[in-house]
Design goal:
By secondary structure, the chain is of the alpha/beta class. The chain is about 30% helix and about 30% strand. The strands form three sheets. A six-stranded mixed beta sheet has the order 5-6-7-3-8-9, with helices on both faces. It is elongated and about 70 Å long. Bound molecules: adenosine-5'-triphosphate.
Length: about 300
């Protein structure tokens, strides 16, 4: 359950990280409340994995701070990592181990390992315990990684591109169900994805990163309620997008233009009318349109 009063599970303040050529994170701040599913979305190279590495304490902030469970994940790595389940983007696991060995090996690190739950996941994921990790398909490897991330029932589950390599049914049915169950139990899921439908389906909160900066960070329902999509028809064909104050993005051609706006709907309609435009359609903005409007705004 969401508890607005409790201390955030993750608190990142003005985090900056520069690699030799890239400004990977440029003043990122966010707070992840306990018991929610928090989606981090951004195009390739936006800084998602770099942010996750800071949350795990694998990178030390060059500037700004990161706290997980109220602790510094670099200085208090053991205490923080004991309560995190992590699925890496590269799914790095010892390839020579069988799935059974991998489970036994991982269990040794976690006093809270729940073997009955691990066996249940093994069967739900249709994993062969005798198969070597290196012989698993990409999808099954992701599921093996998910199993060992989940089976110690961590307070925080961190998933870096969890659905990469999963087929659509597994992605929708298994991953979605797991992520929601973890949050319903009062634990927290922080996951990165570039799949907008997935973020939209399971997240309570969403942060959009673009070139190392947070461009949107909000509850998903508030984000969707706050934006609308208008279709405007003009008496004469326009050879370029009309300038409509209050519009976040304008796309279309000739007489018909689609406008995404954020709360300033009346202003957009009035500006369109002033140049002989008529509102012909109005509805909620699709999440992918909202994402594109913000992620592309910094190009
Ligand atoms: P993707 O979806 O492609 O994994 P991402 O959003 O996870 O992308 P990051 O991997 O965090 O993005 O990379 C952000 C930027 O930092 C990129 O420009 C990347 O090339 C750069 N970068 C990341 N790690 C390093 C590193 N170890 N050395 C140099 N540059 C790096």
């Amino acid at each position: 359950m969401l508890d607005a009063n409790s201390e955030p599970v993750i608190r990142v303040s003005n985090l900056k990280r520069r690699f030799r050529r890239a400004e990977a994170l440029d003043g990122v701040s966010l707070e992840v409340p306990r018991g929610c599913v928090y989606g981090l979305v951004g195009e390739n190279g936006a800084g998602k994995t770099t942010l996750i590495k800071h949350i795990l304490g694998a990178l030390k902030p060059q500037y700004g701070t990161v706290q997980v469970f109220g602790k510094d994940p670099v200085r208090e790595a053991v205490a923080v990592l004991a309560d995190i389940g992590y699925l890496s983007e590269g799914r790095d696991m010892p390839g020579w181990m069988t799935v059974r060995q991998l489970m036994r090996y991982t269990a040794a690190f976690y006093p809270k390992w729940d073997d009955a739950f691990a066996q249940q996941l093994l069967s739900d994921f249709e994993l062969d315990p005798g198969q070597k990790v290196r012989h698993l398909s990409r999808g099954k490897r992701a599921l093996a990684g998910l199993l060992i991330a989940l089976a110690h029932r961590p307070e925080l589950l961190v998933l870096d591109e969890p659905s990469a390599g999963l087929d659509p049914i597994v992605r929708k049915d298994i991953l979605g169900a797991i992520v929601r169950t973890v949050a319903d139990e009062g634990r927290t899921v922080f996951f990165s994805s570039h799949l907008l439908d997935e973020i939209e389906r399971v997240s309570d909160y969403v942060t959009v990163l673009s070139k190392g900066r947070v461009v949107v960070s909000e509850r998903l329902d508030a984000l969707k309620d706050g934006h609308s999509r208008l279709v405007i028809r003009f008496d004469t064909a326009l050879d370029r997008a009309p300038d409509l104050p209050g519009a976040i993005r304008v796309t279309g051609a000739a007489n018909e233009w689609t406008v995404l706006c954020n709360g300033r709907r009346d202003e957009v309609v009035a500006a369109a009318q002033a140049i002989n435009g008529t509102l012909v359609e109005e509805g909620p903005a699709p999440f992918d349109d909202i994402f594109i409007a913000y992620a592309r705004a910094r190009k």
